[in-house]
Amino acid sequence: MPQHDPDRESPPPGPRPGPLRRAWAGVVSFVFLGLTRAAYRVRVSGAEHLPAEGGVLIVANHLSYIDPLFVGAACPRRPRFLMFRDFFRFPLIGGFARLMGTIPISSEDTTSQKRAAIVEVSRLLAQGAVVCIFAEGGITRTGNLMGFARGCERIARRAGVPIVPLALDGLWGSVFSFEGGRALRRVPRPGRRTVRVRLGEPLASDTPAWEVRQRVQTLLGEARGEAWTGPGGLPELFLRSAARHARRPAIVDTQGARLTYRQVLQRALALRAVIERRFPDEERIGLYLPPGAAGAVANLAVSLTGRVTVNLNYSLGAEALAAPIERAGLRSVITSPRFLEALGEGSPASEEATVAIEELAAQVRALDKLAALVGSFLPGALLARLVRAVDDGSRPATILFSSGSTGDPKGVVLTHSNLLTNLQSLAQAVELSRRDRVLGVLPFFHVFGYNVTLWAPLCTGALVCYHARPTDGEVVARLCAEERLTILLATPTFYQLWMRRLERESVASVRMAIAGAEKLPAALAAAWTERLGGCLYEGYGCTELSPVVAVNHPERGEEGHRQSGAVPGSVGRPIPGVGVRIADPETGKTLPPGREGSVLVCGASVMAGYLDEPALSDEVLRDGWYDTGDVGRLDREGFLTLTDRRSRFSKIGGEMVPHGRVEEVLCDVARELHMEAGGEFEDAPRVCVTAVADERRGERLVALHTPLGFALERMTEGLAASELPPLFQPRPDSFFEVASLPSLGSGKLDLAGARAVAESLTRR
């Protein structure tokens, strides 16, 4: 038999195979599917959505070389496949593909080759066949869902057959995937891998490719959620990780702690025993501690008892926490006298409810230490069965009070399943591994600090380095250099502060610096790259989503197959298992790529609801979709770009004016004038745009700014010369200087506080 030439311009095979070949193909297919089910735990759902007869086009995501085996295992009817032409070069895969009548195709094919492939697939579909196409055009090198080629549109429309979306989950990280940039060149990990295959309801033949992609993305979220609905939870994942990485460093903090995973595990197990005795009938326990070894171990210990953690926002002050403590029904709050002294205030709880962590540590008995020591040497699976802190992944893991940047804080209830699926998806998106060393400066009362810098590194074997004062750029620079940090996570405000202290040498080990919680100014990203050499990647999330929705990252893949992971100005692609759609704010109808509308998110990481506020929960949760309150758009490759929040629009003169757009222009003008005057980039004035009531026009814009160092008239002149229409420009008498802009403990701008300041200044 002659060798297959991928460059030869010939149409795919058209003749139908004879009876003997079909029988042999059936036998081989049966054997391969049997081996697949023996080597993997295959979980199939939605198989009833595949029509029992007639032509059907299955459109699936593409994670690995062996995806067709799992599509075949999930389908009651044997499918035919379109396969990337280069795969035919592999003897085993190519031989099996030819036997199964697989149709070769490539993005590098000539027009006639592509047309011939579409004609052949359409003919098979018209004859009643089931055909599967991997619409991304190749195996993902990033683990994310890539953009869908429009070929599936033309094929389905030409054949007039329904489209069945199919989601594959669980194959990323296998030896057949490109995790780490390599496939078929790694030693397989021990144990049987669970692969989830989920089929969706049939779509009409004229469904556009972007809509099919969105449905596959939604199915991925549903499939991933199934993985954490049973027993186990965050404690089990941590126990397995701690046992596996026992000798590796786990936690370093600037108070002098340096702990291995075994030491963290021993401390958490011993403290768990004390908490079980001290709080036998308390379901929720408050924590009032900064990021550090003590705060991390306390959170781990409380979770290991199966109780719900409630980390309290110490940036609000003790008096403001009375309401959250009451709403959460907290009878005990764990804190530290040394921490209270550093804050310069007392405990937010009553004297009877305040418990010092030093006091709890002193109550650890010799038997507790012995049990913890023995437990730390047990296999993780056995230790998890003995502890068994969580019997249902849908149970609440934590209650976090939202930042309150746009109003009163709300108690957000996040389950173990919420946090675990988001943790797993984020780790996949940023390739978090035991080789990473993560900076932890965000407080545990902030959802990014809680899940991303507490549970995520400790559940993947990474080192996390804590410092309680994120504004201390000198210490952050020292930690980056001494601990060789690889991942930084902070708000743009903190990154701008750190640039005064960081040098290229100190961040030489950093492979990803991720900014979130507020808009990343393009000028800051450019200045970071120019001064420090690396990229500043923007991400997006919120408390109600556990928290990560999307993130940019470096491009990945081998030479000739590089895949983009970032688009400037966007917040990246949604992470695996998270679905995003853009809806018309009036009708709720899904909008196509490029159209701006309300950002809605679905997936297993969507919160259980607001604490004791069902009506408020119903306002933002509809049919599994969470309304973020943000405005944005998706492109055809799946990248999400945010415009502003709906609450940050003012109706002036009958037109909706976006505060964010005006604010961005003012910041650019102020920065240019500041640097013209010889100032440093990181010292540039900050500007916040808000609105107050106006009798004549309903609302008027107000600009709050920090000290300028140049005449205000120059900034208003620069604003007038910009492309902003006159209606979008605050009046000269609506600019007010403030010593600093109101901010939250995370460094995020306090929008509600800014509006209150503007109202007080305009009333004078």
Uncertain segments are 1-15
N- and C-termini, Cα separation: 90 Å
Oligomer: single chain
CA gyration radius, whole angstroms? 28 Å
Question: Could you give the order of strands across the largest sheet?
Answer: 1-7-6-2-5-3-4
Structurally, the number of domains stands at: 3
Q: How would you describe what is shown here?
A:
By secondary structure, the protein is of the alpha/beta class. It has three domains: 208 residues, Glycerol-3-phosphate (1)-acyltransferase (3-Layer(aba) Sandwich), CATH 3.40.1130; 401 residues, ANL, N-terminal domain (Rossmann fold); 110 residues, GMP Synthetase, Chain A, domain 3. It has 23 helices and 33 strands. A seven-stranded mixed β-sheet has the order 1-7-6-2-5-3-4, sandwiched between helices. The longest helix has 21 residues.
Task: Summarize the entry for a quick read.
The protein is an alpha/beta fold. It contains 23 helices and 33 strands. Helix 1 packs across helix 2, helix 7 (234-244) runs antiparallel to helix 14 and helix 8 (261-278) packs across helix 9.
